Amino acid sequence: MANPFVHIELETKDLEKAKKFYQGMFDWKLEEIPGMDYTIINVGEGTGGGMMVKPDPAMPDMWLPYILVADVAAATKKAQALGAKICKEVTEVPDMGWFSVITDPNGAAFGLWQAKEAC
Fold it and tell me: Mind giving me the DSSP string for the chain?
């Protein structure tokens, strides 16, 4: 598959409550990222993700899938040309890659992810 789902992120109002629930529900390993308010979800096999306090309190709690692309800037522009709304412009995650968040023409949100190439 050329563009797989590679990361799924929970944006929630109560991060501690969410961590307690998901650790109790599944055998997920959670890892805090030092210096960030972000928790990595390691599911073992399959696509993992992360958890964070939602950036906009008015938004509902939600899961946001990220899709792998070769060029996040070009894919973001293509999505916009096809009628998507850009919610978060291309943003770098230091030492990891770049992402953007869009909503498709029907309002479904998802992220685009470009991983930093290993040296």
Answer: --S-EEEEEEEES-HHHHHHHHHHHS--EEEEPTTSSEEEEE-SSS--EEEEE-S-TTSPPEEEEEEE-S-HHHHHHHHHHTTPEEEEEEEEETTTEEEEEEE-TTS-EEEEEEEPPP-
Query: In the prediction, which pLDDT does 32 show?
Result: 93
Which CATH number do you get for residue 46?
Answer: 3.10.180.10
21 lies in some domain: yes
Prediction pTM value: 0.89
Q: How many domains does the chain have?
A: 2
Domain span holding position 40: 1-53
